[in-house]
Amino acid sequence: MRPIRILDIRDTHEIGGPGKTILETFRAIDRTHFDMHLAVFGSATGNGDTPFVAAAKAAGMPVHLVPGSHGYDPRLVWRLRRLVKELGVDVVHAHEVSSDAIGYLASRLGRTRLITTLHGWIGNSPKQRLMIAFDRRVVRYFDCVIAVSAKIRDEACAAGVPPERVRLLHNAIVVERYRRSGERGFLATLLGRAPTSPVITSVGRLSAEKGHADLIEALAMVAAKGCRMSAVLVGDGPERPRLEQRIRELGLEGWVHMPGYLAQPERILEESDLAVLPSHTEGLPNAALEALIMGVPVLATRVGGTPEVVQDGETGRLVEPHSPPALAAALLEFAAEPSRWKQMAARGSEMVTSRFNFTARTRMQEDIYRELMARPAR
């Protein structure tokens, strides 16, 4: 009997949290029973060698480009369906709003099992909000919906997905990869000079929903109190020009650094005193898991599945979103009592090791695939 053939589908060139999950699942999955492929929607004229595709190829994952003139080219549906038939795919696994839509429409042309992982609905624009409304309707007809947090599970059920077709499967990390090396100097090399302590980091795409603008305002408030902190915003995205302008306006050029995307955030975390996640919305943030496993205290906003990782006062600190004053107050609290925050981080590290191990997550995902194959496609 041949392995179950899985086709993960995505429409983004970035790796991000969902991309990391796909790549780590490919590395950890039982190859004797599962055969994972990746389909990426892309330009009909491009070669598809984006950071995500390059990482997948480097991992040895079979990659297929599904070309279209734009992200919602209707030909993508037919081309995906043709690829599914050519490969003999058993399960199509979508990972965001647009791949949900294309996967759903393609599945209507056949009887391939269809599954999606909901990482969180992000509506920064009218177009995104329209697609979310569409997604809330179509996911009701998927064979299975994986929710990465209890909050998203509840949102899926509220959108009309039958509870018996929803599976809670938290994000996770390969804990063995996050070990302190004892080496210093990476930040100084990256930034061109050693940053002034304490050093806070914020790892995530520079997009409005990540709340970096709130963090920058909070840092200005902290500086006005006579407390200076170096901040490193790791990532890239559409908000970068606006954030850079605000940093200049507040006179924080020498204190807030934006080195761009880094494939190995653990190098920076090793030299960080505090990780901050000022998000307006989250699924279940890998950035919090990565910081805690490295023993770095976490300050985050009370959104999405974040409280399932950061328990306020126990494994980190939570404040309300959209509130620079609340972030500033917590940053000053950290500066006054860093040892207490380190104790919370130590508890958080133990919690991540026991509850968010990627190997265990992969075994649970394999069970979901087997469960799907045991019943006819919808």
Describe the structure.
With 378 residues, this protein is an alpha/beta fold. The protein has two domains: 4-172 and 357-373, Glycogen Phosphorylase B (Rossmann fold, 3-Layer(aba) Sandwich), CATH 3.40.50; 175-355, Glycogen Phosphorylase B (Rossmann fold), CATH 3.40.50. Helix content is 41%, strand content 17%. It has 14 helices and 13 strands. The strands form two sheets. It has a seven-stranded parallel β-sheet, sandwiched between helices. Strands 10-9-8-11-12-13 form a six-stranded parallel β-sheet, sandwiched between helices. Helix 2 (51-58) links the parallel strand 2 (34-43) and strand 3. The longest helix has 18 residues, at 338-355. The protein starts with a strand and ends in a 5-residue tail after the last helix.
Question: Helix and strand layout, with pairings?
Answer:
Layout: E1 4-10, H1 16-28, E2 34-43, H2 51-58, E3 63-68, H3 75-87, E4 91-94, H4 97-107, E5 113-118, H5 126-138, E6 144-147, H6 150-158, E7 166-168, H7 186-191, E8 199-203, H8 212-224, E9 230-234, H9 240-249, E10 256-260, H10 266-269, E11 274-277, H11 286-293, E12 298-301, E13 317-319, H12 324-336, H13 338-355, H14 358-373
Parallel strand pairs: 1-2, 1-4, 2-3, 4-5, 5-6, 6-7, 8-9, 8-11, 9-10, 11-12, 12-13
Helix pairs in contact: 3-4, 4-5, 8-12, 11-13
